Amino acid sequence: MDMNKTNSSIDENEESLVGEVLSDDEVREKKQAIAKWQHSPVGFGSYITKSNDLIQRTKYSLPRNEQKVLFMLMSKIDQKNDKDASKYYSITFNDFAKLTGVRTVDTTYALNLKETIENLENRTFWVKKEPGSKVYRSISWLQKGSEVDFDKKEIRLRFNQDIWKDIAQLTSNYTSYSIEYLLMMKSTYSMRVYEIILSYDNGNRDYGYTNGLVFQPVNDEILNKFSSKRDELTGYKYKKFNIDEFKGLLSAPTEAERESTKSKKKKDPASADKKKFDREKPLSEKYKTFTEFEKNVLKTVKKEINEMTDLWFDYAPARKRGVRKYEYLYIFIKYKTKAEMRDVRSYHDRNTHDDEIVRDSRKKKTQSAEKAAQHITEPFSTDILKMKYRKATTEIRNKADYASYEDKLTDNEKNICNDIFTYTAKILTNTNKCDQAEETLDSLNRIIHDNAGLKTWALGLCVKFTEMFDKATERKSAQYYRTVVYNDTIENSALIIAAGKQKLASLDPAGVFKFDMSVFEDV
Fold first, then answer.
1. Could you count the other beta carbons within 10 Å of the beta carbon of residue 154?
2. Confidence at residue 39, expressed as pLDDT on a 0 to 100 scale
3. What is the C-alpha separation between 514 and 503, in angstroms, rounded?
4. What is the pTM of this model?
5. Nearest to 76 by CA among 109, 44, 110
6. What is d(CA 498, CA 493) in angstroms, rounded to the nearest whole number?
7. Residue 34 clears pLDDT 80, i.e. is over it
8. Core vs surface per residue 486-503: b (16+ CB within 10 A) or e
9. Pair 459, 416: CB distance under 8 Å
10. How far is it, in rounded angstroms, from Cα 101 to Cα 95?
11. What CA–CA distance (Å, rounded) separates 20 from 174?
C-alpha cells in the first residue's frame, strides 16, 4: 500500500515502487534508482499503477499473453498528465512480438495479433459493487474500437472509462510496481499474486492496524505457530488470507456469485460473444483440495516470485483444530537486499528475449525440427478452450503431426482426418458444454503425454471412421460424429491408440522400427 518504505531491507532494494503517492522529488529519486532497467530491450514504461480497490476487490483470470498486453498498456499511462479517459495507447508490432514470443516473420503472426486483441477487448473482470457486498458486476478492461494498423505496424487501444479512476490520476491508496518482473513470468497466477501482495504491504509505516488488514512483522506467536519455519521466517512479514477468498481473487466468481448480479435488464446483444470468456471454472471448483491448489498454482507462484522479483515469498496453510480441510493461507514476504537484487537482474539479463536472429544455415533445419517436435509433445493449454474453432483445429492438426503422413493417406482418409480435427475442435470450443470440453482436453493431454503427441490417436480414429463409413448406408449428422470422437477419446482411447499404431506401421513399416543411435553419442 505504502510507497514510503523505510525498512532497512526495503531501503536496500532500489527497485521497489509500492503504495501511496510521493512528492515530485521523491518520485524523481525513485525513477532514477530504477533507471538501470531502462536499457532493457523490452522498452516499455517502468511501472504499473492501480488503485488498491481494483486489485483487492476484483475477480478475474486472464491468459498470460493478454495479461502482459494489458500490463504493457497500463505502463504507458502518465499518472500526472493523462486526463483523457478516451485516449488511445499504442503498442508496436515488435513490442507485441516480445510480449507473446510470436515473431513478426511467422505466418501466424497477424492472426495471433488480431485474435489476442479481439479477445482482450471482450474480456471482463468482476468487482464487488461495494465493500462487504456479495453483489458483483462485470466490467470490461477496454473500450470497443481497438485498431490494428498494418501500415504503421502498431496496435491502438483505449481503456474502459469505468476503470479510468482506478488506473490514472491516482493520489492515494494505490500500488505501483515494476513491469520488468511481470513480463518474464509464465504463470498468470504469479502476476496476479504479486500485485495482490504489494497492495496489502504498508512498508514500515505504522497505521495502527493489528487486525490483519496489511502485512505485519512476523512475531513470536507466528514463529511458535510455524516452529519448523522459525529460522526461515526471520525478518519476514506475514498476512493471513482465507484460502477460498484468496482463490477467488485469482479467478472468475462462482456461479452463485454471478447469479446475484442478474437483474431484469434487457439482454446484452453481445452476451453471446462474451459467453466463451466466462467459461473458466473458479479455482475453488477447479482445485478443491489444498494439495491440488498448491501443485497447480502456489508452487509456480513461489518459484517465479522468488526468481524474478524484488520479494522473497513463502506460504503455509493452516486449519482449525478438529477440521481436516485447510481454511487459511499464511503468506510471508521479505524484500531482497541490493546483493540479492543483483542476482535478479542477472536472471533477467540471461532470459531476456532477443529479437535479433543470426543466420546459421547449418542449424536452421535441425532447430526447426526440434522446435516442432517439442510443440507436438507439449500439452494443450486451457487457452484452446477460448479459441475460435478454426484456430483450435489448426492446433489439433499440429499436435497430431498431420503433415508427416498426409501424403501417405488416400483422399478419403485425408478428408476423414480433417473432419476429426474439426469435430474435436468444436467439442473443445463449445461454450454450451464446458464440462465436456474440459474433460476432452484432459484426455487429449493424457494421450499426448503417454504417446508423445496425437498422431496415433488421429490415425486410430481415422481407421474407426473409415470402417464406420464402409458399413453405413448413409451419413449421419455432424453431432453424431462429434459424439463418437468424444466417447472414443474419453473411454476407448487405448483401443484407438492401438489401431493408430497399426495404421502408422502400415504407412511406414521401416520407420516404425528405426532406432535413434544418437543416444549413444558423446555429449
1. 16
2. 40
3. 16
4. 0.62
5. 44
6. 8
7. no
8. bebbeeebeebbebbbeb
9. no
10. 10
11. 6
Strand partners, 140: 124
Please give the average per-residue pLDDT across 126-151, as a whole number: 87
Rounded CA-CA distance 288/72 in Å is: 33
What are the cell numbers at 322?
A: 478438529
- DSSP one-letter code for 187: -
- Domain map of the chain by residue range? 8-349, 366-520
Bridge partners (DSSP) of residue 92 are: 154
Residues 6+ apart with CB under 8 A from 67: 188, 191
Q: Identify whether the C-beta of residue 214 lies closer than 8 Å to the C-beta of residue 239.
A: yes
What's the rounded Cα separation, in Å, for the pair 362 and 430?
A: 44
Is 384 in a helix, a strand, or coil?
helix
Contacts of 234 (CB under 8 A, 6+ apart): 218
For 8-349, the fitting CATH number among 2.60.40.1180, 1.10.3210.10, 1.10.10.10, 3.40.640.10 is 1.10.10.10
Take residue 348 and report the three cell numbers written for it.
533477467
* Whether residue 262 has pLDDT greater than 70: no
pLDDT at 105 over 90: no
Say how far apart CA 262 and CA 151 lie, in whole Å.
43
The SS3 of residue 456 is helix
Partners of residue 241 on adjacent β-strands: 329
